[in-house]
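Side project, low priority. Logging it here so it doesn't get lost.
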Amino acid sequence: MSGAAHDPEWRGLFTTAEQLSDAPLTELKREAHSLKGASASLGCSGIASGAKALEEAVISEDLPEVHQHVATLRSLSVPTRDSLLAEGYLFS
C-alpha cells in the first residue's frame, strides 16, 4: 500500500486501532508532541492542531478521543504530504 501512513516518518503515529489500545500512552504523547512541533515549523497548521488535540486526549487518557484524533490526522496525512512534495519540502 502507498500513502503517508505507510512511510517511515509517519509509521510511529499511525497504527491500527488494536495497536493503539495497547500502545504506551507516554510514547504516543511524545510522538504527538513531536509531530505538533515539526508540523507547526513547516506551516502545516491542520496537522499541528490535530497533533495538539491528540496530545491533550492522551494526557486525559480519553481513548475514544485518541482514536478520533488519530483518524483525523490519518485523513490529513496524504494531502499534507502531497503539499509538502509540491513545495519541495519532501522528496519522493
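Brief comment: The CA atoms of residues 57 and 65 lie 6 Å apart.
Revisit when time allows.
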